[in-house]
Amino acid sequence: MQACPTSIDIPKFIKAIATNNMQGSARTILESNILGGACARVCPTEILCEQKCVHTAREAGQAIRIGALQRHATDWQMEHGGQPFTRAVATGKRIAVVGAGPAGLACAHRLAMHGHNIDLIDTHTLPGGLNEYGVAAYKLADDFAQKEVDFLMAIGGITFQGGLSLGKDFTVAQLRKEYDAVFLAVGLAGVRAMGIEGEQLDGVMDAVTFIETLRSQDKKTVPVGRRVVVVGGGNTAVDAAVQARRLGAEDVFLVYRRGHEQMSATTVEREWAQTNGVTVKLWASPVRIVSENGVLRGVEFARGAIGPDGSIAYNPADTFIIEADMVLKAVGQTFLSTPYKQIP
Q1: Which Gene Ontology MF annotations are present (predicted)?
Q2: Final residue belonging to a domain, choices 184, 204, 227
């Protein structure tokens, strides 16, 4: 349990599967994490619960496949058992939940269980947030994100309102007047810039936007470069690189400024990228986006190394260029505070 960010009782749900109590197993998972199906698919279990599994030490690194078992149990519930929780007697309370991503959905479901009526408000046209718009399609295949949302909302008492943005279409002050309570679950809506020359050229875009476009449009209509450079070392970078390769890019380079050990993408994610034909380059920091007559031509990187004192230095005199006609930036996301500055 200590290795699970959502505090799922892992031994309990596995024991239930072993005794063929699939409903009990699923309930144990969903009591702690109503989005346990999606988590089973995207959570880096190899560095969390499976890394802490006692079998890892006992059997030469052979952990129980906890993620696969969790997926098995939650999929069974969605296919055979339906919504496992019942809604309490209506309280008459109205609550606004702003943000229909995992946090907002989980909050709305738990409040609905207690008998409250929830208006789930989001800027997107579909609920799901990160699961619907921010995770590579191959991780949540067959429209799983929306199937899980439908499963969750079957509890009743939750109404989704899409296409509405905080600070543009409504304010927190307005919500506080109309509702008994307001819960903000907006996530990280901003993306970091690299702050280098050429970042505004056509063909340079945020990896988050690239993935969202893929998830919300027909993939056949989404343009992809012939040679793609992805800058970053996290799971979003890997998702974008693999998606670009699968869309038909001939060459895809994932470039990170440090080494494997510092990458936030897991070993499994890195290996998945390489299996899909992505070339990973390390110890290289972007210096500028290269263009010719205003047309994107590539990215120039400075080579780096760890010095005697342990600090990392990049040599501006030691650079190389990777030719590209598309650049995807995956250097982190940020919280946008502007819509909340008027909150009393």
Answers
A1: iron-sulfur cluster binding; oxidoreductase activity
A2: 184
